[in-house]
Amino acid sequence: MLAEIDAVVGGRIEADGPGVAVAVVRGGEVVHAKGYGLANLEWEQPIAPDTVLCLGSLTKPFTAQAILLLERDGKLRLDDAITAYLPDFPTGDRLITVENLLTHTSGIANYVTQPGFWEHVAQTDRTPAELTDLFRALPPVFAPGERYSYSNSGYVLLGRIIEAVSRMPWDTFVRERIFAPLGMAHSRYMLHTPVIPRRARGYERMSAGWEHAPRFSMTLPYAPGGLGSTLDDLIRWDRALRDGRLLDRRTLEQTWRPLRLNDGRTEGYGLGWGLSDFRGRRVVHHAGGVPGFSSFYGRFIKDDLAILALSNIAGFDAAGLARDICDAALGMPAPPRQRISFDTAALDRFTGTYSDAITTFEVVAEGDALALRGEFDYQLFQTGAATFAAMGDPDVELRFADNGGTRCNRVKLIVPFYWVSAYRVQEQRA
Q: What does the pLDDT look like over 114-128, one tens digit per residue?
């Protein structure tokens, strides 16, 4: 296994460039934990299992766990209105609950996707209250519970709720109630000013070579994405999840239950966790990224297996690396897709532009087949009445649905450890 993982990682990074820390844990035992590439190019310092790297949105499970600890303490309830703790946040006549924030079903607009955010906002330090000001006046994307749409804004509010209830800063609560009990001594809020031993630098590939990632205030990701950790610390966290040390098994199963929308449909997100059926295996996971860093954690429940990847390369496909490790080293072959003949008269039923307010793509007719274009690019073949798979990638699937009309009004695009639930653009509601 070790040689196969080395080969997979070696195909994705340069030995003298920034890299990735990778771990595979089975049955609570570490079978592989190793750094590849450099944590600091100037000093040629290698990445190691104790290198501190930014987690990005892999922070969200920790923020969600903090909320669940407060619930266990009797300090809040998931079905409470958020105005019980943040009375100054404008919800109008909408009932937005703590659970809506955890499951990305609040309808609150995502502040990081607003026009000009990266050009004009991302470099300036802000308090949590000032961060809230970036989205408090934005119109809702949908009614609470109507849809799932990934929103960092909801996790900003969760961080503020933690602060209001615990009467301590969000990161202090996470450190005292999660990191310290689990022995995660090198995990912390990745602000720029403190000296953090063994902190990696973040890099991005430019035409002239590697450059430092653009400066980005780490007060901006805050409770949605501001933490950093090491491979060693996250292995400790994985063991705690496996053994029910932080949250008991009943609570963990609650966090890993798919959310249910107002109309009864479910989506593959729980309480701070992405949920997937990967090649017939149940996986709980989360990925993350901030400028210069990328991360992935996935736990295969019945296999008692975890994969971790932390990188200091901007845009590095950490989840894709996890899939490659499944291919090469863990005996998880991709299932075959049975192709059926396509009725070209039904082309118009599926074609169109779809969006989830963050990601937009087109389903287009090319000859007598369909293709996916835009942020994703695949030729498609039909596998069922309203399902398609990607040529050359059996893990990529589209599942169309309609509202009783002649054209499909929504589609779920599934890729390994990630999905997009998108609606036909002209049918989107305000």
A: 999 999 999 999 999
